[in-house]
Amino acid sequence: MSAENTNKKHELLLYAYSLLCDVTPKKYDCGMLCGSACCKENTAHGTDGESGMLLLPGEKELLCGTKDFKFVKSDEGELLVCDGSCVRELRPFACRMFPFYPHIETCGGRYIIKIKPDPRASVICPVFSDFRKRKTHAEFLRNAKKAVRTLLADDDIAKELCSQSDMISDIEKLRGMLLNGLR
Ligand code: SF4
Ligand code: SF4
Q1: Closest approach atom of ligand 1 to CA 37
Q2: Nearest C-alpha to atom 3 of ligand 1 is from which residue?
Q3: Residue 183 gets which letter from DSSP?
Q4: Whole-model pTM?
Q5: Which ligand is the nearest neighbour of the Cα of 91?
Q6: Residue 131 above 70 pLDDT?
Q7: Is the CB of 42 under 6 A from ligand 2?
Q8: In the chain, domain spans
Q9: Considering only CA atoms, which of 169, 172, 164, 158 is closest in space to residue 79?
Q10: Nearest to residue 143, comparing CAs of 44, 46, 24, 41?
Q11: Surface-to-core class of residue 144, CB atoms within 10 Å of its CB (0-12 exposed, 13-18 middle, 19+ buried)
Q12: How far is the CA of 7 from the centre of ligand 1 (A)?
């Protein structure tokens, strides 16, 4: 990757980070609901004992040297492995989106973005499991969509975001089929 290309990715990533820095799915730090369960159960991806958050192109270079992050290559892509704590301002994009994910489709050369509940969050995240706590902060959804649209301006990041969207959509469909089969 050329220095110019890397710099462009970093600019887009930092802007996307800024949109989701203080804005979370709740009007307060949702980690208070659950003791930051998603950070403790950071097992969304990975094989052979390593688990972590899938990164976007350019994120590893942006975040390496930060605290105790480790970076591991997996079949699914580059993973960030943490010890369950981090500097909030320097967490990767996937952590900023969780417990949602960007569902991306293309139509007539345009991206259609929907911010949807991440099916992997259903077992740990109280944002979805407790009806009284389900209402999602509108500003979070707005900023998340804007952040994704910003990142889609880079071809490499767009390809990875679309691939992650397909993968999580497949998990969602499989989960739906399993749940229907159990009813
Ligand atoms: S598990 Fe859900 S409620 Fe808890 S910190 Fe993570 S996103 Fe917030
Ligand atoms: S990088 Fe930070 S926000 Fe993401 S899972 Fe680790 S501790 Fe949680």
Answers
A1: 1
A2: 30
A3: -
A4: 0.88
A5: 2
A6: no
A7: yes
A8: 3-182
A9: 164
A10: 24
A11: buried
A12: 31
